[in-house]
Amino acid sequence: MTRTRHVVVVGGGNAAFCAALAAREQGAQVTLLERAPHEARGGNSRFTAGAMRTVYGGAPDLRRIMPELTDAEVARTDFGSYSRERFYDDLGRVTQYRSDPDLAERLIEGSYETLVWMHGHGVRFLPLYGRQSFEVDGKVRFWGGLTVEAWGGGPGLVDSLTSIAERAGVALRYGARATRLERHGSGWRVGVADDWIDADAVVLACGGFESNPAWRTRYLGPGWDLAKVRGTRFNTGDGIRMAVNAGAATRGNWSGCHAVGWDMNAPEFGDLAVGDNFQKHSYPFGVLVNNDGRRFVDEGADFRNYTYAKYGREVLGQPGQCAWQLFDAKVTHLLRDEYRIRQVTKVSANSIEALAAKMEGVNATNLVAEIAAYNTAVDTATPFDPTVLDGRGTDGLALPKTNWANRLDTPPFEAYGITCGITFTFGGLAVDAEARVCGEDGDPMPDLYAAGELVGGLFYFNYPGGTGLTSGAVFGRTAGTAAAEPAA
To answer: Bridge-partner residues for 196, per DSSP?
Structure first.
């Protein structure tokens, strides 16, 4: 009679739960170790908007994972499609074609079927209206290849996965920080406090090292200890450290991370009551300036999905590690909901001069001159269209704005103060396309798997929005399925 395998999953977010469910689906006994207490559970997944990038061919594919879509919704919405080719191109382009091709293939080819699998287990999805769509000529149009979000955002996703795992018989342990990992006979044992837990296989899915200021400074560079953390305080590199001590190899962009513009007065770590609303991602429709009163990035270089994760680094490099986003009345109706929360650093005025005077720490004289030069350079002959790369840019500036350039000339004017918020780190463990952790010799280590943020080699320099949760789900499912099956 075949003995039931025991799989231990370290972590408590989307990747960990997908691994646990997949292993349980294959008949394994599964124990999930969540470092955080119950009230702070869910890892970074709980702090996200729940967006998941996936291949799809059109509305019929979306209805397979969102059966609640009505005929009326489909009729008034241009969902478009997102092909494998576009996903490959987007991932390659933003990572400067350094993404491991085998990992990229696993992610992209498995994206849609993994969402179908999640839906089959009871995870609900809906269209990402508002943040990823605009109404044009009476039709709602999606843009940027990101159309799907989990019901209830990140908190809803975690709550749903938790309930599904409990019903499936996964043993959930909270406040259970795994700190040691050792080979034990033909399996592994995981150390939690003074105890050891024996396992036939282990899946590490406990995040990167973004919440560890010493590691951030060591690997990302000077100044990164000053960044705010968008999500959980518990992702300090435990899984990476344990695996490396057990003989695993590291891989990927260890000096890189996902970091965004984040409210300058946000707390040091994420606040579950606010979630991801400290982010400020409508900058493509305005102007971004530093304390010297100067622009420092091309705000309209690409759709927000493909620039926001790298512009946090640019903000961190500015004087005072902060910047301001400026908008006028022509575009404030386009600003995302996160600009309308109570906990926001905002000033407004009826002139640029008065606005500059209210922006604490900013050189007002330089700012007024910078906006005047920018306004003069805007190409007003090209129509403004937020749903496409409209080519409405500037002419003659040393630092151009490529798309969505509008003069700041219509009061009231608004400015939002931001700093850098780090989401997750890109460097991690060497993992193959089957989610197996590889040793220093390049060979897979027996019965050791990884998923989520601590997978190295997938993201370099930047990443396409919504890919993190999808990657966690795809590799979590892959890892859990493999971990439940005895090695050949």
So the answer is: 191
Give, in degrees to the nearest 5, the angle at Cα 169 between 166 and 173: 65
Question: 432 with 350, same domain?
Answer: no
pLDDT of residue 488: 55
Q: Is 47 exposed, middle or buried (0-12, 13-18, 19+ CB in 10 A)?
A: buried
pTM of the predicted model over 0.85: yes
Number of domains in the chain: 2
Per-chain mean pLDDT for the chain: 97
| 143-154: pLDDT as tens digits | 888 999 999 999
Query: Can you tell me the distance from the alpha carbon of 295 to that of 276, in angstroms, rounded to the nearest whole number?
Result: 25
Return phi, psi of residue 88, to 5°: -60, -45
The residue type at 233? R
Dist CA 93 CA 159 (whole Å): 34
The two beta strands, 346-349 and 201-204, are: unpaired
Which pLDDT score is estimated for 48?
A: 96
Work out the pLDDT band at 1, boundaries 50, 70, 90: low
Residue 134 falls inside a structural domain = yes
Domain range spanning residue 104?
A: 6-209+426-483
**Residue at 477 is within a domain:** yes
Order of all β-strands in the sheet with 171-174: 171-174, 29-34, 6-10, 201-204, 444-450, 436-438
d(CA 174, CA 94): 37
Residue 487 has pLDDT above 80, yes or no: no
Q: Identify the pLDDT of residue 134.
A: 85
